[in-house]
Give the backbone structure.
Amino acid sequence: MDQSHIRNFAIIAHIDHGKSTLADRLLEMTKTVAMRDMQAQLLDSNPIERERGITIKLAPVRMHYRQHHEDYILNLIDTPGHVDFGYEVSRSMAACEGALLVVDSTQGVQAQTLANLHQARVNKLTVIPLINKIDMPMARIEETRAELRDLGFMDEEMIEISAKTGVNVDQVLEAIVTRIPAPSGIVAAPLRALIFSSQYDTHKGVVIFVRIVDGSIHYDTDIHIHFLASKSTVTPIGLGIFHPKMLEAKSLATGEVGYIATGLKDVRMARVGDTITLVPDEDHIPDVAILPGYKEPKSMVFVGLFPIESNEFQHAREAMEKLQLSDSAFTFRPISSLALGNGFHCGFLGLLHAEIVQERIQREFGLSLLATSPSVEYLLTLKQGTSLSKVGFTASSVVEAQGSYTVVSIQSATEYPDPTVIEKVQEPMMQVAVYCPKRFVGAVMQLSEEKRGEYIDLVYHGEQAEFTYIIPLSEMIVDFFDRLKSVTEGYASLDYEFYEYRTVEVSKVDILVNRERVDALAFLIVKDQARRRGKEIVERLVAVLPRQQFAIPVQAAIGGEVIARDDIKAFRKDVIQKLYGGDRTRKDKLLDKQKKGKAKMKLIGRVEIPQTAFFDVLRKSK
């Protein structure tokens, strides 16, 4: 089809504002899916998405639409709404010319509404504002219109719809064709296509999702595609479109969205964000420019994941490589722990992202993993003359060299060196935007101050209050979002982005069981909170560790100073049960003998800590 009859667009919104429901109505009205096959949240194919009612993965689909006796191809890319999956939104926008901005009329403009709109404008997309849920009795249509006017939209641009009942959704289809521009690629140019997503298929290998920017590709067993970033060349084994399931096609032309089955088994060769082109053979690569793609996601939260069964390490590595293919913001590297064995140090964009990935690994690959406490990336400035190798760092840890000082990054407490070699420590700060009804202003301010937040601004939009705070990421990953929802009765919404690194006084707290350090339980924390946190971990360990025949001390320590201690009481056998008479000295003699035996056991006894105990402590500490 001629590219002037193609429209590529995304649906963007805050979480739970009706993106997936609108996608369902568009599929129905364009007869892309037969009514007998229709189900709610059709594009949310992952069981976790359906159970939680959230979109976690972008989903492309091609629709055919007829207007004024002309046929059009509409390529829709459904996007997630939660802040932790913002990288999925950026990927879909890189493949589109327009976006439908859905705003729930019962809630108005929320944090992710603004964040996604800003991203769409940066990508120079044509944005169509939609006011959704107008059929609801609590709908605030006029207030929502006023909020959209404040964002620079005109009244005539807004379309009032009900995605649930289908009211005015036909107007949305008309607006897509009339307002969103057609793709502007060069048909006669060599092939250039952007990889905006990918997945692994057992039979087809790596399947890349592509947007054809210039040229075209016709399936033939003799063609070769070349990845410009990874510099690898492969012969594809098939290509096609999303309808919404994968449907084989003979070709993909300029402006179209589809998939290419590469047959690759090495998932690292096809990177999301790469540009592909056609080549006659590996020695003749055409001179084509790499597409800008989009900003690479940066991991903000780090968690150690260890297979419960030690023989599943290799299986876990393969599972993570396949998962990384469909989730490019997920990173991992192998690590080893004395207490937990071999595992992986994993990077995520946020706690929900970490939770979803762990659940996917468990369900899709049948693996049981133990997760350590989440941590963030700290920057350490080492003192002059400090040798990297002596303090356990390699050249890859170095972030920058400031004159005679060296700055290194660490992502877990086990990497923290001797404090005497550290000049200063810096932690990541996030710029946080909180939206909530103005009656909760006091509660939000109190919570933000508890989390070491720095107040920046407070603006009122009618009944809504918009806060801006600078809050340390280490405070946000513990329970900030849960407590924010709690103090605002579920009305608050949150958006955040990295702001800067700031100097902070940090202590490494070691946990000792029977005077032996347990590396898996060590953590970094702000100095003035170390005692409270150390006491909490010690109390939980004492509650979950099994008792022995001798007393076991459990301690929290900073360097050589013990800041919290408790003892696991010993089992006591009743050695005087067999006595039925005589004076007190007979009992004392047996009790002394028992005491000496326990002291000897204490000297030679090594405490075995079951992994279930780690699981209980780490789970509760989250």
User: Anything to note?
Assistant: Residues 301-371 form a domain with the Alpha-Beta Plaits fold (CATH 3.30.70.870). The radius of gyration is 29 Å.
